[in-house]
Design brief:
Adenine glycosylase active on G-A mispairs. MutY also corrects error-prone DNA synthesis past GO lesions which are due to the oxidatively damaged form of guanine: 7,8-dihydro-8-oxoguanine (8-oxo-dGTP). This protein is an alpha+beta fold and 377 residues long. The protein has helices at residues 15-32, 44-54, 59-72, 76-81, 84-91, 98-113, 122-125, 133-144, 153-162, 172-185, 191-204, 223-227, 290-300, 355-360, 365-376; strands at 243-254, 261-266, 277-278, 281-283, 311-319, 323-333, 350-353.
Amino acid sequence: MSRTAEIASEHQFSADECDSLRRALLSWYAHHKRELPWRDIGDPYAVWVSEIMLQQTQVATVIDYYHRWLERFPTVEDLARAEREDVMELWAGLGYYRRARFLHESAAVVVDEMGGEVPRTVKQLKSLKGIGPYTAGAIASIAFDEPVPVVDGNVERVLSRLRAISGDPKATANQKLYWALAGDLVDPDAPGDFNQAMMELGATICTPQSPTCMLCPVREHCIAFAEGEPTEYPATAKRTRQRPMTVGTSVVVFGTGRAERFLVVKRPPDGLLGGLWEFPTVVDEDGKASSVDAYLEQCLATAGLETSEPNDLGELVHHFSHIRMTIRAEARRLDTEEPPEGAAEFDQPVDWVSRDELERLPMSAAMRKVLALYEQA
Ligand code: SF4
């Protein structure tokens, strides 16, 4: 199917080129693909889980999470029935926590409204929360052989080089062009393998800084290679400017050794790091530590508790996609050996947990860094 309306003539692949590219790429993929646990499994739910985890996260990091996830929630029913807390606990450390929330919610929709069957088409898949055009295309083509394209950063780069496409790869016009080209190229008989082959080529051969063109199966079709400057494409996209944010975090403890307990607060369900636990943390509007004091006072005073003077743990920086967060960390010790009765009058759920419980609690990577600072101190 040609999508000529969206493809300027200089970028179009001829029918012969499409055939030749498909053959070369599929043959290369059959011999050189990396063995990854989600490949060739035929389980749409597992493909879905892997694709959601692989958004924004490196393959090497995902592998362990993927195994643990499928051990704990082997089917979409298991995930749909799971407690949110357990889902977040298993996701903790992968970042972009909204992915886990949406996956959990969508599993419930699949079970309650779709008879427990993962949808088979891009259109149906996109009706689920957390599944956009890329993920829908990946699941539909890999798990159900729907002849639809996928375009991720790797595919953008390969196509930019094959057709010498200049300009910002994230610009709307270029995005339309990539999707149209990928739609023309995708192999109608092996769409899942073809899409994975394109992404694999971008991940292992046609890499951003140093493509190994001499090993590339589609070199003869590549304009950027013929021009001699493959890394000129695609143009480097402007980095999203990260908004600076400063927060104050206090590690509040009582007891020592095995009796040591940490105060943790659960974040509201929506927004940044929604539903995760953290040490008491406030956004430090004016750059002074006083706001942490006020917060802790509110948190602890009604339980009749007093803390020692804060012990400065130093500063660390943590990067989210749009936020550069500076965390000013401190530690305080409660003047008691008895388990505090609580921290009443507090807006969010709070708890006192042991070191072991802390390990299992769904917390962000930023809070794990704060814990490391505390332990070093
Ligand atoms: S020839 Fe080089 S630049 Fe072109 S697609 Fe292959 S690896 Fe990428």
